[in-house]
Amino acid sequence: MLAVPPRIEVVRRPIETQRLVLVPIETSDSADLWSAVQSSRSELEPWLPWVPFNADQDASYRYADASAQDWDNARACRFGIRDKKGRKLYGVVGLEAFAHLHQSVELGYWLRTDATGHGYMTEAARAIVGWAFTVLHAHRVRVAAATDNRASLAVIGRLGFRFEGIARQAERCHGRWLDHAVFGMLATDARA
Description:
Largest sheet: 8 strands, mixed
Strand content: 25-35%
Number of helices: 5
Number of strands: 8
Helix content: 25-40%
Order of helices and strands: HEEHHEEEHEHEE
Number of domains: 1
């Protein structure tokens, strides 16, 4: 079984990296989430099917509330990626689709446009993957990205995931079908 710590415990002692603080998503994050999505909508929409549905700040509030509930019910753990110095929200990194029996989770992430190109996502995702294995006691972490989403595929490559195959037309996004490159990492694999 996955060992999901209480959300309040991780809020009090967030995950820290060299430049970032990763804190569980709370309803108090809704305005920052709305701002991050709104400022990056044109870059996020081609890859993330939920972006058009995030149409107002209430939608961001509902997402934040659902994220807290998902954590509390051991379904997913989503973190806001914040700058260590100014606490600006750069994006979200999370573990989704918990399969407790199989000790398996899926990595997901997005970054606001003005935070791309600085290695923040690689830094945040590396910390969360490590957390998945050491704290959650996951045996397997899966991640997928559209086959033409070069930025996301580069992050996955830097993290050391192994390519497992192509899921044809895995997702309908922005009026088109996306093939997904699927990757996995096991607790027993060497990590980058």
